[in-house]
Specification:
The protein is mainly alpha-helical and 82 residues long. 52% of the residues lie in helices and 5% in strands. It has one domain. It contains 2 helices and 2 strands. The longest helix has 34 residues. The protein starts with 8 loop residues before the first strand and ends in a 15-residue tail after the last helix.
């Protein structure tokens, strides 16, 4: 957690790693992804959850590469200004 007294959690509408990157860039300490994970579990059980998590990770890595962020710590609001 950044040097704050309150942890900021982003929730709602998170479908891809690109969404995760945007929320982190806007200042979130963590991003909640419950709805899509529940859908994946209902539709595909543990394999569905694994596939959804793989997709989120893959799209987050792509988003980080496109914005020049080599680590989660490098994600900041400057990437949203382009």
């Amino acid at each position: 957690m950044k040097d704050r007294k309150v942890m900021i959690l982003a929730d709602g509408g998170i479908r891809t790693g690109y969404d995760v990157l945007k929320m982190l860039a806007l200042g979130a300490d963590a991003v909640l992804i419950g709805r899509d994970i529940v859908r994946a579990a209902v539709g595909g059980g543990s394999e569905g959850v694994r596939l959804q998590m793989d997709y989120l990770g893959e799209t987050l890595r792509k988003a980080m590469k496109m914005t020049g962020c080599s680590s989660l710590e490098k994600i900041n609001s400057n990437i949203l200004e382009s």
